[in-house]
Amino acid sequence: MAKQKSKMAKAKLSDEAREAKERVEAHPMAVPFLWLGRKSVQDNFIFLPLIGLIITIVLGLVFPPEHEAPWDFFASWAVIGFCAYSAVVFSAEPLFKLLARDENYYGEGSDNG
Amino acid sequence: MSLISFFPDWMLTHGAAFLVVVPLIAGAIAAILPKRQIAAALTVAVSFICMLTSLLLVLQIIDGQTINYALGGWDAPHGIAYVVDGLNAPILFLISAIGFLVSVYGMPTIIAEVEPKKRAPFYAAFLICLAGLLGMVVTGDAFNVFVFLEVSSISTYSLVAMGASRDRRALTAAYNYLIMGSIGATFFVIGLGFLYMETGTLNMADMAVILREMEGGSRVSEIAFGFIIVGLGLKLAMFPLHTWLPGAYAHSPSMVTVFLASTATKAALYLLLRFVFTIFDVSFNYVFDVEIYLLAGLGMVGMILGSLQAIFQTDIRRVLAYSSVAQVGYMLLGVGLGTAAGLTAGYLHLMNHAVIKGALFMALGAFWYRYGITRVTDFNGLSKSMPWTMGAFTLGGLSLIGVPFTAGFTSKFRLVEAAFLKGWWWAVAIIVVSSVLAIIYIGRLLLAAYFQSPPEVNGHVVAKNEAPLLMLIPMWFLVLLSIAIGINADIMVDLAEGAASVLLPISAGATP
Amino acid sequence: MADLLLHLNPGFYFIFAGILCALLPVNIVRKSLLVLTPVFAAFMIFQIYGAQEVISGVISVGPQELITLRIDRLSMVWGYIFCLAGVLNGIYGFHERCRITDSSALIYMGAAVCGVFVGDLLSLFIFWELAAISSVMLVWMGGEGAYKAGIRYLAIHVLSGVLLLAGAVIYGQSNGGDYTFGNIGIDAPGGKLMLIAMGIKCGFPLLHNWIQDAYPKASITGTVILSAFTTKLALYALARGYAGTDILIYIGALMTVFPVFFAVIENDLRRVLSYSLNNQLGFMVCGIGIGTPLAMNGVAGHVVADVVFKGLLFMSMGAVMLRTGTAKASELGGLFRSMPYTTVFCLIGAGSIAAFPLLSAFVTKSMIISAALYSAENSHAIKDWIVLAMLLFASAGVMEHSGIKVPYFTFFAHDSGRRVEEAPWNMLVAMGLASLLCIFFAFPWGGYQFLYSLLPYDVKYHPYTGDHVVFQLQLLFAAMLAFAFLKRIGAYPHERRAEILDFDWTYRKLGLGIVHWMSEMWTRLSVNISRVSMRLIKGTGQKFYHIFSPAGTMSQSTPSGFAAVLTAGMLVVTLIFIYIGAS
Fold first, then answer.
1. By mean pLDDT, which of A36-50, B224-238, C66-80 is the weakest?
2. Residues of chain B contacting C168 with CB distance shorter than 8 Å
3. Which chains touch A (3 or more CB pairs under 8 A)?
4. Which residues of C touch A29 (CB under 8 A)?
5. What percent of chain A shows pLDDT beyond 70?
6. Does C526 touch chain B if contact means CB atoms closer than 8 Å?
7. Which of B188, B232, B241, B243 best tests the C interface by mutation, with the highest count of C CBs <10 A?
8. Using CA atoms, how far apart are residues C498 and C262, in angstroms rounded to an integer?
9. All chains having 3 or more CB pairs closer than 8 angstroms to chain C
């Protein structure tokens, strides 16, 4: 427990140190938003859509779809969204294995970067 | 018809013979002239006279008349008749007009390409070749055709060979051409012999009448037809018989290349039309068969393979030479369609192609004249070093591809239309594919010329060096003509329809 | 004079300005032309078009009448949006000093505007090809790697034009020489050819590769300009000629789905956006296929929205590329620190394309999806429900590639350590304007009503109903949740540099290989043939042959001996034909 706490404190410290360094280099308009780069923010980002999703699913009970598709129920689009998204992402690995080639495959050189 | 009134009366009656005799005699004179300048002037003058004379002939026949001229007052079938009608008058004009433009164009190039002591004979050979081509188109006597065919061919062999001082390979090319040309002529004369055996006459009109009475005749006339088709096919560079053409075009002097590309194959194609449609008749089963399957089929094979071969060439003249093989395919396809629309389109393409290829080869000659360019890779940056010539080449190339508002488009479009009317969808597909191939072989030249920078010599970019005016003027004349035809082709279409109505007298009226 | 201007197709102003630009050496004048010409053209459209269809500017070319100006409610939408895109692109490219880009961009825009406003198929063909030829310059400005892609682009587009012309000629001839461009339908003579021509230009599945091939390789401004016009011109032609053609529904649905899978593995973000473009076009093609007034309104509205938000996304990637020199996801990340404005604009674009409420696609794409839903409700056909399901799937897919992937990997994700300058002011202005438009078009109080009033049909549609907002948000939140979840458990794939194969492999690799192989075989074959023929000639003709033919030249031209044999062969073939024909 204590160990974890110290780890967190360490992470926070390093975040602060990093941000202090970044503050110098960053665009002035970006300075107030540098916290976006923190690992904790990125890790906890998941709660934003989660809460939004819960709210909208509840609202889905209040506003039922006017024109129903056969599969529609109060949370149908949430299910579609989650499944479709996951399907796309999980298809990436096999597709990449199947279709990816060396960048200079066509022998025309890489166009940028 | 007011234009006719400018010509003297004797020309109205004797124009047909005058057209052949003048260059023939002038050729003999040119051979013994001591100085190149005089021979050149004589050639320009004579070809100009020929052009006017043939213009007169065109004017005389434009409303569907036919001129029959009995040579020496000996009437056909015993004497030799010269016949001018809607089919051959435009070709006569084409040949003599190109002859004139080429002789102007040739004045600077000859100095660069032909040895000094051969220049006067060169002009003599050129004039005799002109006479031969005009003669074989104007005559109405089948054997006379052979005579003039040989006259023009033999002079052409020597013209090609005179490219030797520029490129020794001209000798081989001329030799190849000689062998192949002689085989072609032999086949042709064998065919004529058979035909004479069958009909007992050498006059074309008589032959036609007799053959129709015999309803196509026996095996003898069938064999005659076969020999004539192959003989002429060789002369007009019908695909697989085209092998003499690239060499001859690639190594002869520029002026000769232009002249050959624009006229020689065209005259042979005219003879093919004359034999297939007026002497023989498509109503004969064997003629129909050959026309539909062999001419159209080989035409299309030639369109594709010729274009493909053009893509892989490294010598620019060979690129255009193989392109000519492909273009002959278009004309043969028009002939093979056998309808009035198809023949009109094929005939139109014949004339347009002469204009376009003439311009393109003139531009190539100018490139060689200034920079010694013969390879595709040498095209780099030519748009900067020779902008006007390259401009002409570009417009000509676009016309060859068939971009709208150019001559090439008008005739290809009509050919597509004719193929549709006949229901030959695959022919349309092949025209499209072949046009795409044309985009490739012309496109890569244009890309090199416009998007590459000129080569550097000793650290300096090659200086701009435009072709002399005497070359630019005929070149641009042809280019602008091709654009003009692309914008308004009425005159050309009238001529082509006139020719088609000679070939298909009955149906031409029915299907516009 | 003023009267004359009312009969002139507004696209010609662009073309004039483009020609002028080609000759003008003064950068500032060119730039002003680039921005002012679209404004003026839009003003002229406003002047010309009252409430009724305007047909004018009829030119006779030979027997053919070309209608160079036809503005009605359908073409008007495209005309205005092209002008708008022209202004945005003009501002966006303000910093660039390139005469070729300026003039070809103007001519290209002019061709697109002209193409939309002409009234017959032949004129359409002319501008169809002009658009292709002028735009290839923009591709070529992309540098070395773009050259071959440009050639392929040109070849494909010229092919499309040729098909269009062929179809138009068949169609016109069967109509007795009437080339008016109205509803064609797939069953009309030539209809299929023209459909394929348009299909090539708007990226039907398997005909789509030119988009992903050429757009990512074009110059920075070039890509932005290209993305707005070519495909939208084709969509206009489809909407005009093929509204309600059933097959388009399925083509469109397929078109929305397949790019999703390519976009997820693609590393080059400009190529991701090209796939995304393809996917958005799918929605519109599908809408055209449905063809009800609501669907057509959806198509027109979505064109407007798409030009703006897709332009905005390409602009933001262009800005990133300008500053960092790359648009590869694997090389970017954490850029919000250096380019905060661009980040915000990109997020607005991403939100718009993903159809967040209050952002533009929400009010336009929903019309297409609703139209698909209504038609499925009416027909109860299982295939219509499948189409609807595909559209919903694709909506979630849009969220993946454009909504999350593009902004996340560029501006957030792992910090690449790149510290660059913010985009130049003119780019920011262009992106800012586009962002404002994205918000304006979906603004619930007057914004979307204005957009709807421009659309070709009078249909009552309310995007902001409770259920629509709620369910759209469900979809988007669920997608975001899935992203965050998969990221957290480490299932989200890392970006890797690679060339992703698509259907263009068939012609870039397979076709090329076959051609190489054939030319190789051809060489071998011709060598062998000449060797065989040499052997045949040996004995009789060889001595004769050797005297006249120097050995060096033999390999360069076909030996005449062989040709002679060929001639004899021809004679035999001819005689066989004659024999068959005669008997």
1. A36-50
2. none
3. C
4. 340-341
5. 83
6. no
7. B243
8. 12
9. A, B
The two tokens of residue B442 are 């012309």
Q: What are the start-end ranges of the H helices in C118-184?
A: 121-140, 146-174
- Cβ-Cβ contacts under 8 Å for C182 (sequence gap 6 or more): C240, C241
- Check: CB of residue C368 under 8 Å from CB of residue C287: yes
Residue C398, helix vs strand vs coil:
helix
What single letter denotes the amino acid at residue C387?
A: V
Q: What are the φ and ψ backbone dihedral angles of B200, each rounded to 5 degrees?
A: 75, 20
Mean residue pLDDT of chain C comes to 86
Mean pLDDT of B229-251: 88
Residue C185 has a pLDDT of: 86
Question: CA C252 to CA C242: how far, in whole Å?
Answer: 13
CA neighbor of C215 nearest in space, from C126, C283, C281, C302:
C281
- Residues B326, B309: Cα–Cα separation, whole Å: 9
Q: How many CB pairs under 8 A join A and C?
A: 218
Provide the pLDDT for residue B351.
92
Please name which of C458, C455, C361 lies closest in space to residue C81, comparing C-alpha atoms. C455
- The H-assigned helical ranges of B33-88 are 36-61
SS3 of residue C65 by DSSP: strand
Measure the CA–CA gap between B209 and B213, rounded to whole angstroms. Answer: 6
β-bridge partners, C67: C58
SS3 content of chain A, % helix, strand, coil (to 5): 70, 0, 25
Residue of C nearest to A104 (CA): C499
**Rounded Cα distance, C323 and B188, in Å:** 74
- Alpha helices (H) along B114-141: 119-138
Residue-wise pLDDT tens digits, B388-399: 999 999 999 999
Rg of chain C's alpha carbons, rounded to an integer?
27
The answer to whether C582 faces chain B, any CB pair under 8 Å, is yes
B53, B15 Cβ separation under 8 angstroms? yes
Is the separation of the CB atoms in A112 and C326 below 8 Å? yes
Q: Determine the pLDDT at residue B151.
A: 93
CB atoms within 10 A of CB C576: 13
| Bond preceding residue B34 cis, omega within 30 of 0 | no
Q: How many CB atoms lie within 10 A of CB C247?
A: 12
Residue type, B342: G
Q: Please report the pLDDT score of residue C55 as a whole number.
A: 83
Number of helices (H) and strands (E) in chain A: give both, helices first: 4, 1
CA distances from C488 to A87, C443, C481 (A): 16, 35, 10
Secondary structure of C427-488 as H, E, C letters: HHHHHHHHHHHHHHHCCCCCHHHHHHHHCCCCCCCCCCCHHHHHHHHHHHHHHHHHHHHHHH
Residue B139, SS3 per DSSP: strand
Burial A1-37 (b: 16+ CB within 10 A, else e): eeeeeeeeeeeeeebeeebeebeeebbeebeeebebb
Residue segments in chain C with a per-residue pLDDT below the cut of 50: 540-556
C56 - beta bridge partners? Answer: C69
Q: Give first-to-last CA distance, chain B, whole Å.
A: 25
What's the rounded Cα separation, in Å, for the pair B160 and B154?
10
Decide if the complex's ipTM is over 0.90.
Answer: no
> What ranges do the domains of chain B cover?
293-512
Residue of B nearest to C559 (CA): B176
Q: Is C307 exposed, middle or buried (0-12, 13-18, 19+ CB in 10 A)?
A: buried
Read off the DSSP letter of residue A63: S
CA–CA dist B413, B415 (Å, integer): 5
Would you mind telling me the total number of residues written for chain A in this entry?
Answer: 113
